[in-house]
Amino acid sequence: MKELEEKILKEGHALSENILKVDSFINHQVDPVLMQQIGDAFAGHFGNKGITKVVTIESSGIAPALMTAISLNVPMIILKKQPSKVLNDNLLQTVVTSFTKGTSYELTLSHQFIEENDNVLIIDDFLANGCALQGLISIVLEAGASVEGIGIAIEKGFQSGGRIIRNLGYHLESLAIVDSMDASSGTVVFHEQ
Ligand code: 5GP
User: In the structure, what pLDDT confidence band is assigned to residue 7 with cuts at 50, 70 and 90?
Assistant: First the structure.
């Protein structure tokens, strides 16, 4: 997606050869116009899949997931990373190791929000090694629903997640795929799509 690649080139920072900082438009400040374009792009890719729910992980997946849900006119569900005193009924949980923080968290879904006949579209901001996505997929499947598609804003193509998820047979669409980054020169090279 041209607009996303341009924004990454203009405002993104390669912190190292494998961490891209996009705090000014995705992870801290959010660019709502870009998010709407991202939502429309995902709706274009998955609009014919009979999607009934859009599912993401708090917190950075929420903005693109919400815009996608608006475009598809379906509800959005946020899987929680933090234990909650109010979430205690009929929970589905799985442990995910965070790529950026190097820690683990328990991904949690209240079963009532995803049902057996749901066709789920998973949306997230980044794909690195695929741990977050594998956690999301396993919870959706545990709920008895089907994963009809996965939309990622920024895939780092030099890490293993994209290959793992595509090899599992999922329809994965990434709007920008970074082939390489260099922190010293600040260069970010995209995969031709
Ligand atoms: P994975 O589970 O695929 O290894 O990592 C995906 C999660 O880690 C994403 O949900 C995102 O929050 C975070 N993440 C992975 N790589 C990056 C990155 O380069 N920059 C930022 N800002 N977040 C990342």
Answer: very high
